[in-house]
Amino acid sequence: MHAQIEERFLRYVQIDTQSDVESATIPSTEKQLDLLNLIAAELREMGVSDVKMTDYATVIGTIPATVANAPKVALLAHVDTAMDFSGTNVKPLVHRNYAGSPIVLPDAPTRIIDPVMFPYLAEKVGEDVITASGTTLLGADDKAGAVIVMQVAAELLAHPELKHGEVRVSFTPDEEIGRGVHADLPNDLATDVAYTLDGGNVGSVTYETFSADNATVTLTGVSIHPGKSKDQMVSAIMLAAKLLSRLPADTMTPPTTSGYEGFIHCTTMKGNVAEMKLNFILRDFERDGLAAKGALLQKICDDLQAEEPRAVIDCNIRKSYRNMRYWLENDMRPIELAFEATRRAGLEPFSKPTRGGTDGSRLTEMGLPTPNLFTGMQNGHGPMEFVSVQDMAKSAEMCLHLVQLWAEQN
Ligand SMILES: [Zn+2]
């Protein structure tokens, strides 16, 4: 199983699949189809049934049940990589039987993955650790997940003696830009429960994510020739500076929060004297906390508007995703079984809140419970990314136990 996982992973990460938030197409980048089409072909060749590419660029396939009346389980991974760092010409390096020393990335020797800084790497001594070469991300997020799902499909087909219900495998585009879950996906998956393979440390099972809103503040000033504007000009740039200065700086920001704390974060600011547009992300684990952050931003805008009636200040807050715990806590079985499957794979399961969202956040809210499972991937979205072959194999093993555990439920 290790050799197959490694071979497939090395191939997949060399295919550039970076998504693009600026693009309006589906998928956001044509190149994601290079991997999606390859996956569809490999699934067919493997003998997976009903392999199809939906018109929203998601690959879905079925491994038929080996027992009757068992719940259906879907396993998902996303094929795109993040925009934060280049995913072009990825050169994966296998550090076989990793000895424990800092890994110097040869194409950018100042980039060193040091086990002192990343203690998880220290736990991987003796394993086969894969990194990029220094100038790109690796793309283990989430090609590790894609490879694990492929391996599970192959193992289930090779071992018809394993008792399981219908298993669906699915590969989505554009997760990194928050567009991975199409409205038709829950129906097309036609499953009772789903899991994303998009988590980190071995043993982790995630069912708590941020609740998220996005906001755009538009400040319209009064633009007049700067030389003839006494008592008349209202600079949108100055208004934007005022707005930002009134937001909390020592709390409620990404670098000042961790654990269950939320934040208000300005992601982009664009414009000129006449008009400024600021985009914000609002994050909290609880609905009340999230609403309070929206209200604070709104209040700052309202105060600014009252002080400068000649300007027009618009604060538009939009709902994004919600903490999947709200739905999952009504029926914890998907998490309990994932914990049990992790134990059967010889690991200690644990749960940690994710300070972000997953495709599972959306799916869960749409009525399909979808916790997130470990893949072993580390340091996603950047050049220090790494994953061990043994961790990916552990994840595949856990998934094989998981689909059997679901079949034991009847
Ligand atoms: Zn991911």
Percent helix range: 25-40%
| C-alpha end-to-end distance | 30 Å
**Beta-strand fraction estimate:** 15-25%
Strand count, sense and barrel status of the largest sheet are: 7 strands, mixed
Class of the largest domain, according to the CATH hierarchy? Alpha Beta
Q: Fill in the CATH topology of the largest domain.
A: Aminopeptidase
The averaged pLDDT comes out at 97
The CATH H-level superfamily of the largest domain is Zn peptidases
- The number of helical runs is 11
Shape: globular
Strand order in space, largest sheet: 1-2-8-3-9-15-10
CATH architecture of the largest domain: 3-Layer(aba) Sandwich
Summary tags:
11 helices, globular, 4-stranded antiparallel β-sheet, 7-stranded mixed β-sheet, 31% helix, alpha+beta, Aminopeptidase, binds zinc ion
Describe this structure in words.
This protein has helices at residues 2-13, 32-46, 119-122, 140-158, 185-189, 236-246, 287-307, 325-328, 333-344, 359-365, 389-407, and strands at residues 49-53, 59-63, 73-78, 93-95, 103-104, 112-113, 129-131, 167-172, 193-199, 205-206, 211-220, 263-271, 275-284, 312-319, 372-374, 386-388. With 410 residues, the chain is of the alpha+beta class. The chain has 2 domains: 2-208 and 323-407, 3-Layer(aba) Sandwich (Aminopeptidase); 211-319, Alpha-Beta Plaits. A 7-stranded mixed β-sheet has the order 1-2-8-3-9-15-10, covered by helices on one side. Strands 12-13-11-14 form a 4-stranded antiparallel β-sheet, covered by helices on one side. A 3-stranded antiparallel β-sheet has the order 4-7-16. Strand 12 and strand 13 (275-284) form a beta hairpin. Helix 1 (2-13) crosses helix 4 (140-158) and helix 9 packs across helix 11. It binds zinc ion. The site of zinc ion (ZN) has 5 residues, from helix 4.
